[in-house]
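Minutes, project check-in
Item: structure for the 138-residue chain
Input as provided by the requester:
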Amino acid sequence: MSALRQSASSSASEDDQRYAGMDEKKRKRMISNRESARRSRMKKQKLLQDLTGEVSRLQVANKNILAKIEETTERYTVCTAQNNVLKAHAMELNDRLRYLNDVINDTGLAVDAADPLLKPLQIPRPMQPIASSGLFKF
Protein backbone atom coordinates (compact mmCIF):
# COMPACT_ATOMS: atom_id res chain seq x y z
CA MET A 1 0.00 0.00 0.00
CA SER A 2 2.82 2.38 0.88
CA ALA A 3 4.51 1.50 -2.42
CA LEU A 4 1.39 2.68 -4.21
CA ARG A 5 1.37 5.91 -2.22
CA GLN A 6 5.03 6.49 -2.98
CA SER A 7 4.53 5.82 -6.70
CA ALA A 8 1.43 8.03 -6.77
CA SER A 9 3.17 10.81 -4.90
CA SER A 10 6.34 10.42 -6.96
CA SER A 11 4.34 10.51 -10.20
CA ALA A 12 2.49 13.61 -8.98
CA SER A 13 5.79 15.28 -8.12
CA GLU A 14 7.22 14.14 -11.47
CA ASP A 15 4.19 15.67 -13.19
CA ASP A 16 4.72 18.88 -11.27
CA GLN A 17 8.40 18.93 -12.23
CA ARG A 18 7.67 18.01 -15.84
CA TYR A 19 5.11 20.75 -16.23
CA ALA A 20 6.89 23.34 -14.09
CA GLY A 21 8.10 25.21 -17.16
CA MET A 22 4.61 25.42 -18.73
CA ASP A 23 2.18 28.11 -17.94
CA GLU A 24 -0.18 27.33 -15.05
CA LYS A 25 -3.37 27.04 -17.12
CA LYS A 26 -1.92 24.51 -19.54
CA ARG A 27 -0.38 22.47 -16.72
CA LYS A 28 -3.70 22.24 -14.80
CA ARG A 29 -5.53 21.22 -17.98
CA MET A 30 -3.03 18.41 -18.69
CA ILE A 31 -3.25 17.11 -15.13
CA SER A 32 -7.06 17.30 -15.28
CA ASN A 33 -7.05 15.41 -18.59
CA ARG A 34 -4.90 12.66 -17.08
CA GLU A 35 -7.25 12.31 -14.12
CA SER A 36 -10.23 12.26 -16.44
CA ALA A 37 -8.61 9.54 -18.56
CA ARG A 38 -7.86 7.52 -15.40
CA ARG A 39 -11.50 7.83 -14.27
CA SER A 40 -12.66 6.85 -17.74
CA ARG A 41 -10.45 3.73 -17.70
CA MET A 42 -11.78 2.78 -14.26
CA LYS A 43 -15.35 3.32 -15.43
CA LYS A 44 -14.75 1.09 -18.47
CA GLN A 45 -13.17 -1.56 -16.29
CA LYS A 46 -16.17 -1.52 -13.94
CA LEU A 47 -18.56 -1.74 -16.91
CA LEU A 48 -16.57 -4.69 -18.27
CA GLN A 49 -16.78 -6.46 -14.89
CA ASP A 50 -20.52 -5.79 -14.69
CA LEU A 51 -21.07 -7.14 -18.20
CA THR A 52 -18.95 -10.22 -17.45
CA GLY A 53 -21.10 -10.88 -14.39
CA GLU A 54 -24.25 -10.43 -16.46
CA VAL A 55 -22.94 -12.90 -19.06
CA SER A 56 -22.31 -15.46 -16.32
CA ARG A 57 -25.79 -14.95 -14.88
CA LEU A 58 -27.39 -15.31 -18.32
CA GLN A 59 -25.40 -18.47 -19.06
CA VAL A 60 -26.70 -20.05 -15.85
CA ALA A 61 -30.26 -18.99 -16.71
CA ASN A 62 -29.83 -20.41 -20.22
CA LYS A 63 -28.64 -23.76 -18.82
CA ASN A 64 -31.69 -23.88 -16.54
CA ILE A 65 -34.03 -23.16 -19.44
CA LEU A 66 -32.38 -25.84 -21.59
CA ALA A 67 -32.76 -28.36 -18.76
CA LYS A 68 -36.46 -27.50 -18.44
CA ILE A 69 -36.93 -27.85 -22.21
CA GLU A 70 -35.26 -31.26 -22.14
CA GLU A 71 -37.43 -32.40 -19.22
CA THR A 72 -40.59 -31.15 -20.94
CA THR A 73 -39.61 -32.89 -24.17
CA GLU A 74 -39.12 -36.17 -22.31
CA ARG A 75 -42.49 -35.80 -20.60
CA TYR A 76 -44.12 -35.01 -23.96
CA THR A 77 -42.59 -38.16 -25.47
CA VAL A 78 -43.92 -40.28 -22.60
CA CYS A 79 -47.39 -38.72 -22.88
CA THR A 80 -47.42 -39.27 -26.65
CA ALA A 81 -46.55 -42.94 -26.18
CA GLN A 82 -49.25 -43.34 -23.53
CA ASN A 83 -51.75 -41.57 -25.77
CA ASN A 84 -50.96 -43.96 -28.64
CA VAL A 85 -51.50 -46.94 -26.34
CA LEU A 86 -54.82 -45.51 -25.17
CA LYS A 87 -55.95 -44.83 -28.76
CA ALA A 88 -55.14 -48.43 -29.72
CA HIS A 89 -57.04 -49.68 -26.68
CA ALA A 90 -60.03 -47.47 -27.53
CA MET A 91 -60.05 -48.79 -31.10
CA GLU A 92 -59.96 -52.35 -29.77
CA LEU A 93 -62.88 -51.64 -27.42
CA ASN A 94 -64.87 -50.02 -30.24
CA ASP A 95 -64.27 -53.09 -32.41
CA ARG A 96 -65.42 -55.38 -29.58
CA LEU A 97 -68.51 -53.24 -29.02
CA ARG A 98 -69.34 -53.31 -32.72
CA TYR A 99 -68.91 -57.08 -32.74
CA LEU A 100 -71.15 -57.53 -29.69
CA ASN A 101 -73.82 -55.29 -31.22
CA ASP A 102 -73.65 -57.34 -34.41
CA VAL A 103 -74.04 -60.54 -32.39
CA ILE A 104 -77.05 -59.13 -30.58
CA ASN A 105 -78.68 -57.93 -33.81
CA ASP A 106 -77.93 -61.07 -35.81
CA THR A 107 -79.07 -63.61 -33.21
CA GLY A 108 -82.05 -61.64 -31.93
CA LEU A 109 -81.35 -62.68 -28.38
CA ALA A 110 -84.20 -62.02 -26.00
CA VAL A 111 -83.16 -60.82 -22.61
CA ASP A 112 -84.76 -62.71 -19.76
CA ALA A 113 -85.45 -60.31 -16.90
CA ALA A 114 -85.63 -63.24 -14.49
CA ASP A 115 -81.94 -64.00 -15.05
CA PRO A 116 -80.18 -63.17 -11.75
CA LEU A 117 -77.07 -62.02 -13.60
CA LEU A 118 -79.06 -59.27 -15.33
CA LYS A 119 -80.99 -57.99 -12.30
CA PRO A 120 -78.48 -55.27 -11.47
CA LEU A 121 -78.90 -53.89 -14.99
CA GLN A 122 -82.67 -53.37 -14.58
CA ILE A 123 -83.40 -53.63 -18.29
CA PRO A 124 -87.05 -52.53 -18.84
CA ARG A 125 -87.24 -53.35 -22.57
CA PRO A 126 -85.48 -55.60 -25.07
CA MET A 127 -81.80 -54.99 -25.63
CA GLN A 128 -80.93 -52.44 -28.32
CA PRO A 129 -77.54 -51.80 -29.95
CA ILE A 130 -75.27 -49.51 -27.96
CA ALA A 131 -74.10 -46.44 -29.83
CA SER A 132 -70.35 -46.02 -29.66
CA SER A 133 -69.99 -42.76 -31.58
CA GLY A 134 -69.96 -40.65 -28.42
CA LEU A 135 -67.68 -42.84 -26.36
CA PHE A 136 -64.32 -41.94 -27.82
CA LYS A 137 -63.43 -38.83 -29.77
CA PHE A 138 -60.11 -38.44 -31.52
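Outcome recorded: Helices lie at 2-18, 24-107.
No further action items on this chain.
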